Every structure is written in C-alpha cells, then in structure tokens.
Amino acid sequence: MGIISKLTGCGSYLPKNVVTNADLAKKVDTSEEWIFSRTGIKQRHHAAVGENTSDLALIAAERALLHAGVNGHDVDLIVVGTTTPDRTFPATAVRIQKNLGCDHGAAFDVQAVCSGFIYALSIVDSMLKAGQFKTALVIGADTLSRLLNWEDRTTCVLFGDGAGAVVVQAFEVDTNSFHDGGILSTHIHSDGSMEDLLYCDGGPSTTQTTGYITMSGKEVFRHAVTKLASVVTEALAANNLKDIDIDWLVPHQANKRIIDSTVKKLNMPKDKVVLTVHDHANTSAASIPLALDRAVHDGRIKRGDLLLMEAMGGGLTWGAALARW
Ligand code: COA
Description:
Layout: E1 2-13, E2 17-20, H1 21-25, H2 32-39, E3 43-46, H3 53-68, E4 77-81, H4 92-99, E5 106-110, H5 116-129, E6 135-143, H6 153-156, E7 161-173, E8 183-190, E9 198-200, E10 213-215, H7 217-238, E11 248-251, H8 256-266, H9 277-280, H10 287-297, E12 306-313, E13 317-324
Parallel strand pairs: 4-5, 4-6, 11-12
Antiparallel strand pairs: 1-7, 2-3, 6-7, 8-13, 9-10, 12-13
C-alpha cells in the first residue's frame, strides 16, 4: 500500500473591475498595441478598495471545495502562495481557515512570488504523501495592483489581481494495482543571486512600507525562457515521459511570448496550451490555478488528462509539476 495525492477540484475568482489596455493608455504613457504585441495582454482585473487578497482567495477556495464535493470542515491543511498578504502577519491562510469555518489542522503562506502556486503544491504534495494531512487546499492569490508604481510604464501594465485554488486529497492505494498516480512529481528551484532582477523595493524590516515592483524586464525574460525549458525537461525525465504524452500545458501566465517559447521547446500543438494571459495579465501565484479552472470548467481538461504546470518568478524561483487531472 502507498499514499498518492490527487487534485480533486478547482475554483477561481477575478475581481469585477476590468481595466483594459485602452483604459491604461489614458493614464500611462503607453498604447494598446505596445502592451498586446509585447505581452499578449488585453486587460486585467483590479481589486476594489477594501477587497483584499483573502477575499479573492476565499471565493476561489469555496468554489474549489464545491467542485471537489468537500466540506470546509474536512480541510486539514491550507497553504496559500501569495506575495500580497492581507497583513504582514499572521498568514493570509489563517484568515481563510477562519472564514471557511475550519478549526483544525494547519494553515500557512508560502512566498515564492509567481512560482508560489507550484511551491505550495509541492509542499502539500509532500505533506500528504508523508501521511501528515488528508485534505488540503492549495491557493494562489495576489493583489499585485497594490504594488504597482504608476510612474513606471515598464511594469505597471503587466500585472493584475486574482485567485485560484485546488483541493488536493490523499488516497491510500495498492501500489501493485493500477492507479493513475495523481500528482506524479513536483520540481522547485531558486537562485538568490538573481534577486535584484525582480523585487519589491519595500519590506517590514527595511523601509516599513510595502514598496513597488522593480524589474529588469529583458533579463527576466531571458531567464524565464531558459529556466522553464530546463524544468519542464526535468519533470518529464523524472517520470520517463515525453512531450507527446502531455495532454495540457497549464503555464504561469506572465507573457504570451514566454509561453510560446516553452511550447516551442516542448514541440506541442498550440491548442494543447491553456492561455488566459490576455484576460487577466500576470496575476502572480494565482495564474496557474486560474488557467486550470478555466480549462476544466469549459470542458477542455478531462479526468485522467496529463497536465504539465510551470512557473518562474522573483527570487528567482521556478518550478514545474506533472499531474493527472
Ligand atoms: N508602453 C510603451 N512603451 C514602453 C512601455 C510601455 N508600457 N514599457 C517600455 N516601453 C518602451 C521602452 O521605454 C523602450 O523604449 P526605448 O527603446 O525608446 O528605450 C521600448 O519600449 C522597448 O523596451 P524594452 O524593455 O526593450 O521592451 P521589451 O521588448 O523587452 O518588452 C517587457 C518589455 C517587459 C514586455 C519584456 O521585457 C518582458 O516581458 N519581460 C518579462 C517580464 C515578465 O514576464 N515578468 C514577470 C515574470 S514572473
């Protein structure tokens, strides 16, 4: 006998307020054409005043629980990937735990910026397989609009707000009989020597402010292309799989040109890629579960499909996960 962990439901939420490229061009020295041609972004969603990361995350979590047919009281682990917590402490995850009416188990946040969902999934997968918990919520939620410098046109057009969640459950299986494997493997990396390529210039122990996003765009782009290619190769090799075995690529949605380069590397048909960046820009830790939820609920992703998820973000951090839906 052994334990596998499986994705059993997903949900997501985007704030109602939509900001198009044309809206931005009215207040920033930019154009619809520049943003779309460089990134594939057409619009983003911005949280309303008073609408916090935990509010977006809670709706996504409730939708994921409903989809999985799981009661909030049965959740014994909540891990939130976020860079924009409601408070400096405690973790946003404990607020979600309270708001779900969940009174046992553990809840904490993970800070890996745009790789936050993959990091959170990796941690949860290990904890479930170790037999420590049974039913987990993995949430990616961010309100990066709160960290934007509207005087910096090279970054302020790229990001949006949103949340996505998955339910992950542990199942005991007979390892000698057929089972689909659930989450096959996760792979996470970081290289702190590149922290200055993409960071927020504030912090509780330095400026006592939250600060603004600062990015060397071209350098980040270059690293994204090479590191994502390397980590997807690593994930496939670890499972003795080939690119043709993948049913769906569900990538971090930062920039269509970065996604296109991974697709080229994997030699995948474009209709096997879930693309949502046009609709919500870069929502950091939320973007993979947002894309997953879109493709599950419109019927593209079906039970048993093999998913490859990948992301890179500030740190630099990067990672990938292979899972059967
Ligand atoms: N609107 C109009 N012009 C803009 C602009 C904007 N929003 N932002 C920058 N520009 C200008 C620059 O000032 C520059 O003008 P110049 O040539 O007169 O100096 C020109 O556009 C080209 O800038 P450049 O930085 O070379 O553009 P680029 O082709 O590298 O695209 C990014 C910029 C940010 C879109 C691109 O580097 C990128 O996508 N990087 C990765 C970002 C990312 O995904 N980060 C998150 C990872 S999780």
